[in-house]
Amino acid sequence: MTALDDGRHCDELQDALARFRASASRLESWGSRLADRLGHGARLLVAGNGGSAAQAQHLTAELVGRYREDRPAYSALALHADTSSTTAIANDYGVQEVFARQTRAHGRPGDILLLMSTSGASANLLTAATEARRIGMTVWALTGPAPNPLEAAGDEALCVDAPVPATVQELHLVAVHMICEAFDRTIAGQDGAVRQEPALDAVRVEEA
Length: 208
What we know:
Blueprint: H1 3-6, H2 8-20, H3 24-39, E1 44-48, H4 51-64, E2 76-78, H5 83-93, H6 98-106, E3 112-117, H7 123-135, E4 138-143, H8 149-153, E5 156-159, H9 165-191
Parallel strand pairs: 1-2, 1-3, 3-4, 4-5
């Protein structure tokens, strides 16, 4: 294996990242609108399969917990994370329904469904998109290269132009963090809710 082969993954990521920078304005918009919706009581549902499921749960953890600075918690659910519901639905209704049925249970008009897929062709995500739009939710898709079915199934899509699924997933993580950055900036601008976490050495633990 040559040195070029050893570094090919990094080269592909660097090239894709340069193209990805053009998506910054869309991610800023998504983060800002997400903050406005969740700040007024809406909920974010996120779904993906495999590595995209991990990315989905990463995003919801940042919103329910925090990204960089302390702020209130917001309602966000990764639909694959309820393993009992997911496996029961798959067993009783089929894998294609695992996200659609949970969307039906948890989604409300005005909520947002974010679907993450490197291929943009997962049948269970497409079914969830159809159900979400029927309910009156907003559907965003974060996918691999366009065109793909999920791009057309939602209200808006960000399609990552990268040659392999691994690079797409790496840039999806960048997208997750950029959404969180915009989300926190918007929340801070609305009401000053974002505040610096107290320094560890300032915390006093009383002795028993």
